[in-house]
Write a structure and sequence with these properties.
Strand content: under 5%
Distance between the termini: 115 Å
Order of helices and strands: HHHHHHHHHHHEEHHEEHH
Strand order of the largest sheet: 1-2
Number of helices: 15
Helix content: 55-70%
Largest sheet: 2 strands, antiparallel
Number of domains: 3
Structural class: mainly alpha
Number of strands: 4
Length: 447
Amino acid sequence: MSFMTGVATGLANSVAASINADMAQTDKNISQLAALRLQRASDNEATNRKARKEKEADIKTMVSYLDNSTDAAQFLIDNYSFDRAKVIAANLASQKQKLGLNPLDQIGLAKRDGKSATLEQLIDSNTPYLTLASLDSVKGNVAVGFGKMFGGADSALNRLDELSSSQIAAAGIDMPSGKEALETMPPTLQGNLKEYMLGRLDTPLAEAKRLYRMANTFEADGNKEEAEAMRTEAQSLMLIEESTRASTSTDEKWTTDKSIRNGDNLGKSLAMANNLGTVIDKKTGLITDISGDDKQRTEYIKKQSYLQELLNKYIMDNGIKSHGTAMRELKLAIADNHMISYEPPADDDGVGKFIVDRNAKLFTVPSSTTSSGNPKINIGSSSSSTASGGATTPTASGSGAAAVNQPSTAQQIVDQLLKQTPGSVKANALKNILIRNHPGTAIPQGY
């Protein structure tokens, strides 16, 4: 054997040994990495099982709080995050118990056209499942030396994937991702849950007062529609409060139905006294139609509910037998258009009474026509009607001329007060002026 032949043979043997060693190390790496992935898969499965069990309990509780509506749960989760959705759902359930407010009515979901999300979909789409890392992260560490050549790296990675997958399957390990639940989940419905609904107080009376204060603030900011919605809700809560208080009385009970019927009666008197044509809902006692502008409509709703609230308070404190006296005094105030307020009894043996302020008007937005249907006019000015013969709004003219329906100074200050935020510096200043210069003027509720 020549020298060169010996060198070539030795080199070939050396290369073969290196290739064998690299392939052996590559096989060992594949085996070790597959074993590591199997262990991680087993650990992840245990963690996922625990996480899913916890999420299942949370979602089932949430759905039960929401009258078993998965749509409502889906809405809260998608709009407020999962953790806050749990708090809101519990809050809404508490409001149902304490205030009688239905969670689904408050959320105000749109109608579902199709199937709702299932509990399983909600659970799987919200469980933070752990998954195995992509094999791309170890691509350069599987094959060794000669094992990387001629596509050996990709081949080694494929072998690792096949071995790992077969071992995980053989062990019966489930590796969910939640992806399928997300892909098949129906779209989230639109809702109308307002932020103010999330901070309810614990009793109907306290919540009604809060809503009245907020309504004043919203109206001052120009949100009239939402302000009226708040007042309507506050009125409903007051009925709940009064009926609850009445149920503890040993006298004949002042029921919600009686409150509504008498509120309707007062509303008709208020409308007649101010020449407003109205249609009253017999079930709720609230106006459904009125002839007049937006200011007159708003004033009617506000004062009708205010009178009904006074009536409820008076009868609750003085007994059902005081009903006749209460109605008589309230109707006199309506007829004379004098502001009236209620002063509760000073102690358990005392009697509540109405306070009439003859210097302040009860209804501050007058109708533009008299009871005979003729246009109202101002002293010292002429009036005109529209081409169709309709009524016109009177305007004051002439030096020192006074409008027949010009609000008193006290009422003008009250009107300014209602435009301020309760508790603000300006609101407190206006309130102090009323107390100091116009004693006896009724301070609006919430101020």
